Amino acid sequence: MHGIIRPHTFSGTFRVPASKSHTIRRLLIAALGEGVSEITYPLDSLDARSCVSVCRALGAHIEEHRAVDGLCPNPADETGEKLVRWTVQGIGPAPHSALRTPHSPLDVGNSGTTLFLALAVAALGRGPVEFTGDAQIRCRSAAPLLEALSGLGITVTSAPKGCAPITVQGPWKGGRVSLPCPTSQYLSALLLAAPLAPGGTITEIDVPLLNERPYIELTLSYLDAQKIPYEGAADFSYFRIPGGAQYTPMNGPVPGDFSSTAFPGGAAVISGGPVTLLGLDPDDPQGDKVVFDMLSQMGAEVTWVKLPSPAGRTQPEWGLHISRTGPLWGGVFDLNATPDLLPIMAAVAAYAEGTTALVNVAHARIKETDRIAVMAQELGKLGVLCEERPDGLIIRGGSALRGGGVDGHGDHRVVMALATAALGAAGPVEIGSAEAAAVTYPGFLELLAADIHP
Hints:
Elements: E1 2-5, E2 12-15, H1 20-32, E3 36-40, H2 46-57, E4 61-67, E5 82-89, H3 95-98, E6 106-107, H4 112-122, E7 129-132, H5 143-151, E8 155-159, E9 163-169, E10 175-178, H6 185-193, E11 202-206, H7 213-225, E12 231-232, E13 238-242, E14 252-253, H8 258-271, E15 275-280, H9 291-298, E16 301-307, E17 317-323, E18 332-334, H10 342-349, E19 354-359, H11 371-381, E20 385-389, E21 392-397, E22 404-407, H12 412-421, E23 429-432, H13 444-447, E24 451-453
Parallel strand pairs: 2-15, 3-14, 6-7, 10-11, 18-19, 22-23
Antiparallel strand pairs: 1-23, 1-24, 3-5, 4-5, 7-9, 8-9, 11-13, 12-13, 15-17, 16-17, 19-21, 20-21
Helix pairs in contact: 1-2, 1-4, 1-7, 2-4, 4-6, 6-7, 8-10, 8-12, 10-11, 10-12
C-alpha cells in the first residue's frame, strides 16, 4: 500500500491510542493470572492482536467487546463500533502446569514485544511451543534471551543467530544466568515469567548491559502493583526472583501511548499546529514521554493543561498542547533509553537550523529495520543531509525538503516519521509499505489526510 501526504498544517484535538507496551504487558499478566480481568480501552493494532492470538493459543479465554464510544481512540468498524474492552479468563493459578501446548506454530506477525515476552512465558510450560513471524521478525535475533532461558533449564532450538522459528520447552528449573540486553525486552521477558516458575525455584539474573531502562521500570511497576516479591540492584544489574507467585486480575483502562504520541506531536512541531492530545498521563512511567522535553528544547511550545472530565468519566484529564511559532534549533540528544524516538526525532531535525546529533543509540539498528540506516537513506531522498554513525545519526537541517517517493521498509515507525516529515515538504511525498503504520497506530495516515492506494 502507498500513502501520499500533501504538505499542510496539522492542527486540532485528538485522542491518542493506548500504549502498546502497557497493552501487551496487561494482556500477558491477565492471561497468566487467576480469575477474570477487564482490560478497557486497549490498543487495537496488529501487534496487540498478535499478542491476543498467542495468549489464546496458550490457554487463556479472551472475549472482545465492541461498542460505539466517543472516548475510545481505537478505529471504528463499518458499523461505527470500536474495541472498548477485553475480558480475559486467566490460565492461573499455576501457569507452569496449566499452559496449553499448541499444535501449530504461534505467529507473532511483526510484534517483537510479543515474541520476546511470550518466549519466556511459554518456557514455563512442559510442552514444546514454536514461534514464528513475518520476514522482519525472522531476522531479529533473540540469542541472548535464548541463552539465558537455556541456562534456566529450558530446551531451546532456533534458526541461525537465534532467530525465529524458535521452539522453547520447559520445565523452568531456575539458576543464575547472565543476560546482556541490547533490547530491554529480553529482561522484561524474564521478569514477567520468573515469578510464575514452580515454588522453590530461584531465578537470578546478572545484567551486564541494559539499554532502554525506562521499559524495565515499566515492567517492575507491574510486578510492584501485583505485589510480586523480587530483589534487584538499584542500577538493574542484578535481580533475584523466587518462583511460586501468581498474578491477580488486571483491570482498568490502558494508558495512552507516548511512543505513538510522538508522531502527531512531531507533526504539530513541523507544520506549526496547534495540536491538543488527549488520553495521556504526565506521571506515567513510559520513557518516551521525554520526547516532548526534546521538542521543547528545539523550539516547540509544549504545555500540559488539566481539562474538565469528559462525559462518561468522573476524573478530569490532561491535555497536551503542542505548537510552534518560531524556528527550530538543532541539538544533541541521547536516545539510549528511548531508541523508538529516533525516526521521529530525525524527521523533526530535518527542519531544525544547524546540526542535530542523535547519539548513544546503536540498538536502533536491531529494531524492525536498521532505523539509523533507513532514516538516513529515506530522508536523503527528500534532500536532507544525513550522516550515519555506528551509534547514531547526524542530521544537517534547515533546508526545505523536496517532495518525491520514499519507502517505509515495512517499519511502522519509519512510515509514520516519513509521513510526518512530508507535512513541511515542498511537494507531495509518496510512501511505500504505508500499511505498516497499523502495527501500532491504526488510522495515523488518515489522521494526516493521506491519500491511500494499493
